């Protein structure tokens, strides 16, 4: 590269750095007062942990990456936010991301000293690894200035061969519809199907009534030691490959008991389950097709909720199975089947309701109910509706001044209200499922 090209590149880098923002809306930048509006949510604890671990994370992993930013600004938080609020998840071939490893694999695969059989296997593995996709978080100057929109005007593509841009593995914007691109109109892209929790944590904004919202639910790992027969249950959890946490997305409600989309609900493919009833005493639940909770998580809750008699029943069923088919270990599916046969769904659903109620109490502590959040958003003008002229208060209109709300506070209330709404809706689903389970002796 000549001196002229290097000078141009340096100018482009400086121009790009000068255009990067200096303020951000993600919780890392919230004031202590603004952060209190997230209390009871997952983001509150996540932000506290992020603030505490940022310095060590920088020293261990990100120092070289953000050194340029720190030299220019001396601002650790800004460097972190610049990357994570603008980074894209880019799909690239493994051979492009790890070229040195790929070259070594190829040389080893083609080593003439290798046995013919081994050489063929290595060569096949080498070629298959070239096709493997690796997702890499990275900044793409230009595209990273595009804002998010569910109805994006453009999408971005990776030009693997360079046929469109002239540079292999470069990226470019592609219009969704030609009519959408108008002079003076903002070009937006989609950041993906992300809920408000992820949008606020990573990018510093939320969307009202986000269709991709979700809540995280988990059974505390530390609480298992206080459960009766904890060691036996831990072994069963491991044998079943059970999940102690789950994401409950709003879209799951589309085929729940109270979905208004009856046609969609009726077309939902019935969950694939094993014929659990080895003894014929327990029937497949009639409500299975409308149960919105992940089976892996219900498996965990069934196991934790089991009483002593049910544990012995599981042991007997598994011994019967193994003895009838010779000396072998039961599979995870068979263990799940035995647990369900022994205890059904009632205990799991009651424990699920307890977890959801606890989550709701955490969300409402200090901020009130879902209706309280709605009332706040209705009474106080949203920051998006405050024009520059309205925002300049001369101090005489105290009522108007008190109505103003910071962008961060508004985003926090929208996010936490969405969490309360989903928790309430899933509580309703779990309660109805429990009633059905009890009526069917499940």
From TrEMBL:
Gene3D superfamilies the UniProt entry points to: Rubisco LSMT, substrate-binding domain (3.90.1420.10), set domain protein methyltransferase, domain 1 (3.90.1410.10)
Entry's Gene Ontology BP terms: methylation
GO molecular function, one term: protein-lysine N-methyltransferase activity
Signal peptide: none
Coiled coil: none
Zinc-finger as UniProt keyword: no
Entry superkingdom: Eukaryota
Alphabetical keyword list: Methyltransferase, S-adenosyl-L-methionine, Transferase
Protein name listed in UniProt: SET domain-containing protein
Organism the protein comes from: Mikania micrantha
């Amino acid at each position: 590269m000549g001196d002229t090209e290097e000078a141009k590149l340096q100018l482009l880098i400086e121009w790009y750095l000068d255009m990067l923002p200096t303020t951000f809306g993600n919780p890392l930048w919230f004031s202590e007062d603004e952060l209190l509006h997230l209390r009871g949510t997952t983001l509150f604890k996540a932000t506290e942990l992020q603030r505490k671990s940022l310095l060590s994370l920088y020293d261990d992993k990100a120092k070289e990456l953000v050194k340029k930013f720190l030299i220019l600004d001396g601002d650790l938080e800004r460097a972190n936010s610049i990357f994570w609020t603008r980074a894209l998840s880019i799909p690239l071939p493994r051979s492009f991301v790890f070229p040195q490893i790929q070259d070594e694999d190829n040389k080893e695969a083609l080593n003439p000293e290798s046995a013919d059989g081994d050489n063929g296997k290595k060569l096949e593995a080498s070629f298959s690894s070239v096709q493997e996709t690796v997702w890499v978080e990275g900044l793409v100057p230009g595209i990273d200035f595009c804002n998010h929109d569910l109805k994006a005007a453009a999408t971005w593509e990776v030009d693997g061969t360079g046929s469109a841009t002239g540079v292999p593995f470069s990226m470019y914007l592609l219009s969704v519809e030609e009519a959408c691109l108008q002079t003076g109109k903002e070009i937006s892209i989609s950041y993906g199907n992300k809920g408000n929790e992820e949008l606020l944590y990573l990018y510093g904004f939320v969307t009202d009534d986000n269709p991709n919202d979700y809540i995280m639910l988990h059974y505390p790992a530390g609480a298992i030691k206080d459960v009766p027969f904890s060691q036996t249950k831990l072994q069963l959890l491991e044998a079943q490959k059970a999940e102690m946490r789950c994401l409950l997305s709003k879209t799951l409600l589309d085929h729940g008991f109270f979905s208004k989309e009856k046609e969609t609900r009726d077309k939902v493919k019935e969950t694939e389950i094993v014929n659990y009833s080895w003894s014929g005493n327990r029937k497949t639940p009639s409500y299975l097709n409308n149960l919105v909770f992940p089976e892996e998580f219900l498996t965990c809750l069934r196991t934790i909720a089991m009483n002593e008699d049910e544990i012995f029943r599981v042991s007997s069923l598994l011994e019967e199975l193994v003895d009838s088919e010779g000396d072998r270990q039961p599979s995870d599916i068979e263990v799940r089947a035995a647990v369900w046969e022994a205890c059904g769904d009632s205990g799991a659903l009651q424990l699920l309701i307890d977890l959801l109620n606890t989550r709701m109490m955490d969300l409402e502590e200090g901020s009130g109910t879902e209706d309280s959040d709605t009332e706040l958003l209705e009474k106080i003008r949203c920051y998006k509706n405050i024009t520059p002229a309205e925002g300049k208060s001369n101090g005489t209109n105290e009522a108007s001044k008190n109505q103003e709300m910071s962008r961060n506070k508004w985003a926090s209330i929208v996010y936490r209200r969405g969490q309360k709404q989903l928790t309430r809706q899933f509580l309703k689903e779990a309660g109805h499922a429990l009633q059905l389970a009890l009526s069917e002796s499940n």
